[in-house]
Amino acid sequence: QKEVEQDPGPLSVPEGAIVSLNCTYSNSAFQYFMWYRQYSRKGPELLMYTYSSGNKEDGRFTAQVDKSSKYISLFIRDSQPSDSATYLCASDNTDKLIFGTGTRLQVFP
Amino acid sequence: DTGVSQNPRHKITKRGQNVTFRCDPISEHNRLYWYRQTLGQGPEFLTYFQNEAQLEKSRLLSDRFSAERPKGSFSTLEIQRTEQGDSAMYLCASSPKGYNEQFFGPGTRLTVL
User: What share of chain A is helix, strand, coil (3-state, %, to 5)?
Assistant: First the structure.
């Protein structure tokens, strides 16, 4: 079992939709959780960073962590075609990041 | 541009050749990380430095791989006797002291023929 599991998709939604991206993790010692966006053939770009359980909002993006169920979510409101990318969740394990496989998102006009 | 930079961006080599990649972290970031990413997978941790000290190496880092960070500034990752299985995107990230966020560079895409 991978330490961080993520559905690879692809997920295809119309412009303006609310997108929900999810990950689960197995190591209860994880405390820091991140979401990265990666465009094709580019490096990952940090979108959201949260510590422990709770919600964090930044513009159209909301990150949620539920440590009781070991569940990480990213919500994108009013999705745009420019949001089309691969979204990677990651957890911090003693200074190194453990990534999910990434979910490919396509937002069509 | 004040982000993490990596050179070269692309490298094509023949099996058995040695290759070296360079990473320049964000100024004053004391931690520097190397990851490897293959198609359809998330990045996998290879090694990291705090200043010039190499603190951890993954079991993925075979003895053909070596990384250095002289003087705690830029870092190099060398792969000796490359194999086709080494074909991947090699990503570098840096992190400031006291923070857990890691900021990635654009990566070096290696193709071993």
Answer: 5, 60, 40
Which portions of chain A are predicted below pLDDT 70?
none
Contact B101 A46 (CB under 8 A): yes
In the predicted structure, residue B1 carries a pLDDT above the cut 70: no
Classify residue B62 by burial, with Cβ atoms within 10 Å: 0-12, 13-18, 19+. Answer: exposed
Decide: A73 and A21 in contact? Cβ < 8 Å.
yes
Contact B101/A49, CB-based, under 8 Å?
Answer: yes
In angstroms, rounded to a whole number, what is the distance separating the alpha carbons of residues B93 and B17? 25
CB atoms within 10 A of CB B79: 22
B101: contact with A, CB 8 A cutoff? yes
Q: Are B108 and B90 in contact (CB under 8 A)?
A: yes
Report the residue from A32, A42, A99 with minimal CB separation from B106. Answer: A42
**Distance (Å) from the alpha carbon of A62 to chain B's nearest alpha carbon:** 17
Comparing B23 with A3, which gets the higher pLDDT? B23
Choose among A7, A85, A101, A105: nearest CA to B44. Answer: A101
